Amino acid sequence: MANSILEQISQNILTTLNGMTVAMGYTQDITFTRPLRKGTIPTANTGILAIAAVKSEGQDGDTQQPIYSQLQHFMVDYELEIYIFQSDDDTTPIDTIKSNIFADCSILLMADAQRGSPADASGPHLALDTFVTGYDNFFDEDGSFEGMTVNFSVHYRVFRNNPYQAG
Asked: pLDDT tens-digit profile of 16-66?
């Protein structure tokens, strides 16, 4: 059986974000992965690593359908935890790096806001829309890295009795 529409959306996001390389015209080379467990923190001492994780999922209250509708709407929130391990020789201000990474993530995520097509061609798109909502900063207390969490949401719908079929 194919993956659910939510899983297909998550895979699409990961594939899309892994296109962020200097060779493709972006400001950083970033490797995106999905965590195997909650609270996964990278141990790399150089480079940038990001973790794409589903934050929450719930019915989208603003787009409730009548009880007779065959479709069910969802808004799923994602977080990209981006860990920045800056070398001592790098003189680029950390806020410049973060601003550029946020801009690059926004460009990639919004290039296809409807997240491609379902694997089984059950609909024209996996999602209705993608919303990039901003970013938050974090840092390690021992100073070994700084980071940011890019926040975005994806609005999608499936058939009420089949979360494997886009609606």
From this structure: 999 999 999 999 888 888 877 766 666 664 455 566 666 666 665 555 555
Which pTM was predicted? 0.84
Written as one string, the DSSP assignment of 88-117 is TT--S-HHHHHHHHHHHHHHHHHHTTT---
State which amino acid sits at residue 81.
E
Q: Which pair of structure tokens corresponds to residue 29?
A: 């080379």
Give me the architecture of the 5-166 domain, per CATH: 2-Layer Sandwich (3.30)
CA torsion 132-34-121-61 (nearest 10°) is -50
Burial tier of 56 (Cβ tally within 10 Å: 0-12, 13-18, 19+): exposed
Give the C-alpha distances (Å, rounded to integers) separating 55 from 38, 110, 160. 10, 19, 22
Q: Are the C-beta atoms of 167 and 5 separated by less than 8 Å?
A: no
Q: CA 145 to CA 141: how far, in whole Å?
A: 9
162 is written with which tokens? 């089949």
Judge contact between 76 and 54, C-beta under 8 A: yes
- Between the two ends of the chain, the Cα-to-Cα distance in Å is 18
